[in-house]
Structure formats: structure tokens, C-alpha cells
Design brief:
By secondary structure, the protein is mainly beta. It contains 2 helices and 32 strands. The protein has a 21-stranded mixed β-sheet that branches. An 11-stranded mixed β-sheet has the order 3-4-6-8-11-14-17-20-23-26-29, with no helix packed on it.
């Protein structure tokens, strides 16, 4: 017969009760090990996590820090080169910066997980030629907090992206968005999310969240800045609205920029080109043919893509005989769309129509509309440019 001592039995019961409690109670994230208030310039926690040299807070390798405060005096945040860190923003507002000053700058090789505290509103507005969050040659992952209710408003200035590259050809780096509410825009010729002026989009992955991305002038909503290619863009989920600036694609290339590699597997996407840019694909060309749509693969999600004419008849003609496609090339070029469908008509992925606009549903090769799951359909509205000579 197995004999169990009273002491062992009592310990076993205690462990069982503890295990049950852990199974029932939700697991919450551990608090950051350090805090810093930009308004007061004071912090707590691990001294090795950060360095304060007014006006710059430098976040160091290994840091897990929560930042608060509202400033418009030039105070800002940088992440040390090569550092891996976790930063929680809790109602941070950084505005009033000077030329080339970035509210949150990731130096070369930095790898940052940016957590938007639940219920917080965080505003990052760049100085001239800088990005709202600058990620060139760095890696940024955005999380929306435990409940996903944190929000971020990031605005690039002049040639900087909202999130991504600064002016002077800054590429977007590696950007992943997993949740939260993110509004990213450029006040100049950068992308909403992606490249600064002349910069490619980099590697952009969106897995969730509510995203509003707007280019200005000739930047893409998501992708390249003016003259920049879209880079590698993957959308697996989320509710996404992307609008290109005057000649940029909604998702893809900036003005004169090719679409790059664009893959959509899920989410609800509304992409709108402007001034001859495609909804999804290439931007409008300035001097000759429009930019190629690149390689576009859509296997799921709800996708609405709206192309555009040039903002004037002369601009439309500079891009080619057609406006930007709903899905495909900008301003009269071609793209590779939905696996291996290569359109040959002016205007790109969706051949032009004699009507000012129309809707069309595309299906992947080998599947008929009657047998294909609705999730595989990409709905695209192309606006064909039928402008006369300038």
C-alpha cells in the first residue's frame, strides 16, 4: 500500500490549487523595467536601459522602457545603433522639432518592439526632411498593447515618410505592424509607410491593426517615396486604407516607382492611387511610360483597388495612353498580377475601358468564378485615362 505523509499531501494540494489559479487567471504582460517622462526629463529603473542628455533620450541595448510626456521643445528619442529594445509609448506627444530631427530615430542595426499602451494616443511629428519614426537600415515591430487599443499618429515632414525613411533617399528598412491603430502620413514627398524621397519601401509586413497610410505629393500610401519602388510588401490581416500622393500608388511605387513585390493573403484593404498612380502597383511616370506594377499576388482578403488618371490631361499623357490601373501599372505600363496574369494593355493590370471607370473582379488562374472561394477574389476599380493631347 502506498503511504503518503500528511506533509506531502498538504504540499501537493497547495501546488494543485496554485496550478488551477494560474489556469483560470489571465496572464498579463510584465511591466517595463524602466520609465522615463520626457516632460520632466526624469526616469526610474535600470540605469543601463537609457541615457539622458537633454534634449535626446537614448534607449540602449536590452532596454524595456515605458516613455510618457508631451514636449515641443526639441526633446526626442533615439535608439542606439545595434540595440535590441522594447519601448512602450503611453500618451507621448513629440512635436516642434527642427530640420532633420526625428521624434523616434532607430539608428543603424537597431531592432525595436514598439508597444502602444492600451488606451493611449501617441503623436510623433517630424522636423523637416525627417520621418515620424525613422527606420532606415533598422527593424521596427509595432504592437497595439494587450487589448490592442493603443494608437499612433506618425507624420513625416517634407521628404520624410510617416514611418520609414527620411529624406535623401532613405529606404523604409524592415517594418512589421501586428496591431493597434496606426495613422502614418507624409506632409511632403515621402510615403505614409515606407520610403522617404527617392527611397524604396523596404520590407513591410502588416498582420493586423487599423492602418491609415497616406502619401503626399508623389509618395505611395504604403511603399516607395517619390521615385522609389514599393519594395517587398506583405499584408496578412488588418483593416487598411492606403492612399497615394499626387502620382503615387495606394500600395506600391511612388511617382515613377515600380510596384515591387506585393503579396496579400488577408485583411480588408482599400487602396487608392492618385494622379496616374495605380491602386496597387506602380506609380505614374513623369517623362515617358508609367512604372511597372511589379509582381502582385492576391490569395485572400477583401481588396478594393482604385486607379487614377493624371491630375491634368498633360500629366496623364506623360504616363502613357492610360491612367493608373486598379491593380497593375501606373500611367500606361504593365505589371504581373495575380500569379501569372501579365496584362498588355495601356493602363496596366486592368485594361482600360471606354467608360471613365468600371469595376472588375479578378480570379487566380485555374479557378472559375463559380468554384473559387470569395476570399480569393480581388475587386479592382480602374479609372482609365482617356485624356486628349496636352
Amino acid at each position: 500500500m502506498l503511504k503518503v505523509s500528511k506533509k506531502s499531501f498538504t504540499l501537493g494540494m497547495a501546488l494543485a490549487v496554485l496550478a488551477g489559479a494560474l489556469a483560470i487567471c489571465p496572464v498579463t504582460a510584465l511591466a517595463a523595467t524602466s520609465t522615463f517622462n520626457l516632460t520632466t526629463g526624469a526616469g526610474t529603473g535600470q540605469a543601463s536601459d537609457y541615457a539622458w542628455s537633454d534634449p535626446i533620450l537614448t534607449v540602449n541595448h536590452g532596454a524595456d522602457i515605458e516613455i510618457t510626456g508631451t514636449v515641443n521643445s526639441g526633446r526626442r528619442i533615439e535608439v542606439a545603433a545595434g540595440a535590441t529594445a522594447a519601448i512602450t509609448l503611453s500618451n507621448v506627444s513629440i512635436t516642434g522639432l527642427g530640420s532633420n530631427q526625428c521624434p523616434l530615430l532607430l539608428n543603424t542595426g537597431a531592432n525595436v518592439t514598439l508597444i502602444l499602451a492600451d488606451g493611449s494616443i501617441n503623436t510623433l511629428t517630424a522636423g523637416t526632411s525627417a520621418a515620424g519614426i525613422q527606420t532606415t537600415d533598422a527593424t521596427l515591430t509595432i504592437e497595439g498593447g494587450i487589448a490592442g487599443t493603443g494608437s499612433l499618429i506618425a507624420t513625416g515632414n517634407a521628404s520624410g515618410a510617416g514611418i520609414g525613411g527620411g529624406g535623401g533617399g532613405g529606404a523604409g528598412g524592415t517594418i512589421t505592424i501586428n496591431g493597434g491603430s496606426v495613422t502614418a502620413s507624409s506632409s511632403g514627398i515621402g510615403a505614409g509607410i515606407g520610403g522617404g524621397n527617392g527611397g524604396a519601401g523596404g520590407t513591410i509586413t502588416i498582420n493586423g491593426g487599423d492602418i491609415i497610410a497616406s502619401g503626399n505629393a508623389s509618395g505611395a500610401g504604403i511603399g516607395g517615396g517619390s521615385g522609389g519602388a514599393g519594395g517587398s510588401i506583405t499584408i496578412n490581416g488588418g483593416n487598411i486604407s492606403a492612399t497615394g500622393g499626387s502620382s503615387g500608388a495606394g500600395i506600391g511605387g511612388g511617382g515613377s516607382g515600380v510596384g515591387g513585390s506585393i503579396t496579400i493573403t488577408g485583411g480588408k484593404i482599400n487602396a487608392t492611387g492618385s494622379g496616374g498612380g495605380a491602386g496597387i502597383g506602380g506609380g505614374r511616370g513623369f517623362n515617358s511610360g508609367g512604372a511597372s506594377g511589379g509582381v502582385i499576388l492576391i490569395t485572400g482578403g477583401s481588396v478594393t483597388a482604385t486607379g487614377s488618371v493624371g491630375s491634368t490631361p498633360a500629366q496623364a499623357n506623360k504616363g502613357g495612353s492610360g491612367g493608373g490601373a486598379g491593380i497593375g501599372g501606373g500611367g500606361g505600363n504593365n505589371g504581373t498580377v495575380l500569379d501569372a496574369i501579365t496584362p498588355s494593355q495601356p493602363g496596366g493590370g486592368i485594361p482600360p475601358s471606354p467608360l471613365p471607370s468600371r469595376s472588375q473582379t479578378y480570379h487566380r488562374p485555374g479557378l472559375t468564378p463559380s468554384t473559387q472561394p470569395a476570399a480569393l477574389a480581388a475587386r479592382a476599380t480602374g479609372r482609365a485615362a482617356r485624356a486628349g493631347p496636352a
